[in-house]
Amino acid sequence: MTEIMISNEVMQYINMASKVTKTDILDCMITDDKLIFIVRKGFIGVAIGSKAKNIEKLKILFKKNIKFVEFDDDKQKFLLNLCKPYKVNQITIEGEKDTSVAKLEVDITDKSKIIGKGGKNIEIIRDLAKRHHGIRDVQIA
User: Fold this and answer.
1) Which one of 5, 43, 80, 102 counts the least CB within 10 Å of its CB?
2) Are residues 57 and 83 in the same domain?
3) What is the pLDDT of residues 27-63, one digit of tens each?
4) Are residues 81 and 55 in the same domain?
5) For residue 8, what are the CA distances in angstroms to 22, 28, 63?
6) Of 36, 60, 58, 82, nearest to 25 (Cα)?
7) How far is Cα 69 from Cα 79, in angstroms, rounded to an integer?
8) b/e for 25-58, b at 16 or more Cβ within 10 A?
9) Beta strands 65-70 and 88-94, pairing class
10) pTM, whole model, 2 decimals?
11) Are residues 60 and 13 in the same domain?
């Protein structure tokens, strides 16, 4: 995993979410309407909580939508986790570290959802893929 610089604001979100979920949160991305937390591999269920109670608590606490993504050392598995709940049929990663490009073959029914309004969702996927695995670009096919 590459070294990640975390701002004070992000660190406050991570600390508060860690207390609620009682799990190790590695990173957080802040958008206008959503917080995306990256949790250590194997702890996604703990983070979400029984009947998604932790998501609901955090939604009330932060007044934003909440998404948890499970970290994985494997680039392809991490990309799949970033794209959930949408269906990705195939991932190919071309190039070397820091110049690599990931190409995601997506179900036609999920393509617009993964891209998001104004490209919002794909930008989040790109940012987190670059931040955690040095992937320069993520393209949808």
Assistant:
1) 5
2) no
3) 999 998 999 999 999 999 999 999 999 999 999 999 9
4) no
5) 20, 11, 19
6) 36
7) 10
8) bbbbbeeeeebbbbbeeebbebbbbeeeebbeeb
9) unpaired
10) 0.91
11) yes
